[in-house]
Amino acid sequence: MFRSTENHFLVLTIFLFCSYTSRRGRCAGRICITCFFSLQSLIDNRDNENNSGEKEIFSMAKIDAFFKLMHEQGASDLHLVSGQQPVIRIRGDMERVKYHILDNDELKAMLYEITPEHKVKQFEETGDVDFAYEVPNLARYRANFFQQKYGVAAVFREIPSTIMTAQQLGLPPVITKLASLPRGLILVTGPTGSGKSTTLAAIVDEANRTRKDHIITIEDPIEFVHESKSCIINHREVGFHTKSFSTALRGALREDPDIILVGELRDLETISLAVEAASTGHLVFGTLHTTSASKTLDRVIEVFPASEQMQIRSTLADGIRAVISQVLFKRIDKPGRCVALEILIATPAVRNLIREAKTYQIPSIMQTGRKFGMQMLDDAIMDLLNRGWIGAEEAYTKANDKTKFRPFLRTPPADFTEV
After folding, report:
1. Residue 44 pLDDT exceeds 50
2. What is the reported pLDDT for 192?
3. What's the structural domain count of the chain?
4. Contact 321, 285 (CB under 8 A)
5. What is the mean pLDDT of residues 299-328?
6. How far is CA 86 from CA 75, 83, 160, 308, in A?
7. What element of type H or E holds 16?
8. Which of 43, 253, 369, 379 has the most neighbouring CB atoms within 10 Å?
9. 359 in the same domain as 233
């Protein structure tokens, strides 16, 4: 980022200054954003003074300093809100940045500096917008702008530039095997921020390295960017390359795809097309915001009118291959986070339960299906707890059957919703 030897010296000077002042409680033990902007100002001034010969350009957008700080601290999200200090989320916790309270006009100018013109127009008209932004040699960021009571606000999620494999993420071997399936529907579900995109990226990367196929991804916005390896990969962004998920998915069926990734199954038409594609010889990956495997299947079925649900049960039973529901946890043994997975594999017994509208019996099938790679979410959470990776309180909070985890708590809470 800094080209001259003098600029490298300035970086070191500011770093040492922050390290020194942190002992006096001024920079919280890290390069604070105020010092980073001071550095940027010094670099800008130095570059302006040295423009007698070839011009050296310092093209860093002002907001990029926040992204650099965010990346160095291992933060997953950056929150910029009018009337408040910037906030970053580190290992699940919100931490305020040592910076002044953001004024609405200042923040809007900072955001618009990196926003494509058509996205600015969309935001001005609707009050909401999504897009992706990339800082070269750092990372990509999924951006969401929205209007709130005190002005503009924005949330940025960091998308690592390096795609981790399933093995590096510690995912079970059955997850890797899903990448080799010739056809069918695979759903990855969980709350917002539970790592669904990371899991899907690992599966697609496995397919990209081991198969010779055509992969199409449809996202809003594009998150992980895959370089074509053994496969050809085409990334399409809703609102930029195509009008909607359903439009892109309908078009994809005529584009000779082998694997289709749908970033989000938002509506009836998109879900219907995804199920149809899975039933006609394509391997389809999609995401939903559900919390368990059986509830995911119910959600897919219930989005259809009552008159069509019997038919969709039969079609879904034929097409479904796996459902992965996941939850993220903070690690207590070392910095970082880990994931607990509920895995449903569509065996003949599971398919029969879907056809017969008996999805409530699926958990009992999962408990006896370990040889197929199935596991319940609570069993995965208990395994993490027994390893000493996660805390009992968070395990209790995120478990489905909380009674299993009450004995691990020093002072079990009185939860009136569990009575």
Report:
1. no
2. 86
3. 3
4. no
5. 96
6. 13, 10, 21, 48
7. helix 5-22
8. 43
9. yes
